[in-house]
Amino acid sequence: MARMNRPAPVEITYKNMRFLITHNPTNATLHKFIEELKKYGVTTVVRVCEATYDSNLVIKEGIQVLDWPFDDGAPPSTQIVDDWLNLVRRKFREEPGCCIAVHCVAGLGRPAPVEITYKNMRFLITHNPTNATLHKFIEELKKYGVTTVVRVCEATYDSNLVIKEGIQVLDWPFDDGAPPSTQIVDDWLNLVRRKFREEPGCCIAVHCVAGLGRKRRGAFNSKQLFYLEKYRPKMRLRFKDSNGHRTNCCIQ
């Protein structure tokens, strides 16, 4: 469940203008984000959301960062539109061949929540919110009957606001692109057993910053493939039915 759903950057070219639509990084994934910016020749990043990383680390690489936030789902203000058009005119006149990157947290192309159901188990794979978009995130959780949220990434919002709504938040982070530790796997399986036994019909939500469901060539990176090659099922999610017979499971 590591951040294996990060949307790939999308390059848009028109005449002499180049734009890069990207996911948002956090400080934990910022080095990879900077590598992407350099790869595409980005000289300016426009953030239209609440900041989730230290822009000074990007600026040190010679890349300008502009903060022009506006409300999630709302149109930009007239001032932001004017500033954007002025930036585009100036940049592509003064720096031929350059690229402007744009991103927001729930972003250009935010994935809708995906519900996965198997027998009596329900899971919700979601984008990650920030404090600015947290109220909508909580609405989604309630809509699907979520009682527990598992964060496998650096925190980007105040979990206390979720907890106040009666929803448990568990922080089980692990490195970007890497498999979870044995402890996290055990904790996850124990959570699944307990939750669906004690709270029939409930739902467990899982998210990370760059999201489960990354759209790029190849579903897995080399670390994940290595993990799968060495993986051996342990049948830890086999349940006994009312007759004492063991049932099959889809998660091992």
TrEMBL record:
Catalytic activity annotation: O-phospho-L-tyrosyl-[protein] + H2O = L-tyrosyl-[protein] + phosphate
InterPro entries (alphabetical): Prot-tyrosine_phosphatase-like, PTP, Tyr_Pase_dom
Gene Ontology cellular component terms for the protein in this record: early endosome; plasma membrane
GO biological processes: endothelial cell migration; regulation of signal transduction
Example GO molecular function: protein tyrosine phosphatase activity
Pfam families the UniProt entry points to: Tc-R-P
Keyword presence, Nucleus: no
Superkingdom of the source species: Eukaryota
Enzyme class: hydrolase
Domain Tyrosine specific protein phosphatases: 82-110, 186-214
Compartment annotation: Cell membrane; Early endosome
Main location: membrane
Swiss-Prot/TrEMBL keywords: Cell membrane, Disulfide bond, Endosome, Hydrolase, Lipoprotein, Membrane, Methylation, Prenylation, Protein phosphatase
EC number(s) per entry: 3.1.3.48
Function field: Protein tyrosine phosphatase which stimulates progression from G1 into S phase during mitosis. Enhances cell proliferation, cell motility and invasive activity, and promotes cancer metastasis. May be involved in the progression of cardiac hypertrophy by inhibiting intracellular calcium mobilization in response to angiotensin II.
Subunit composition and interactions: Interacts with tubulin.
Family: Belongs to the protein-tyrosine phosphatase family.
Protein name per its UniProtKB record: Protein tyrosine phosphatase type IVA 3
Organism: Danionella cerebrum
